[in-house]
Amino acid sequence: MPSSCKEIRIELAECILKSDCMLKDGLSAKECLHSDNEYRIPVECTAIKRSFFECKRGMLDMRNRFRGNKS
Hints:
71 residues, 66% helix, elongated
């Protein structure tokens, strides 16, 4: 994975691992990130998830592909 999204991915993983969705409800990280369980993760994790999505989308956008992500 390109280094521009790697830090955000690690931050998202740490946030999900510390969330009540995994600790109290016993769901996997994949299940917590699923849209049906979005209410179970904190707002901070949702914001990080959105940032990760934007980063990945920026890698595929032809206008940004050669310039790189803004972050």
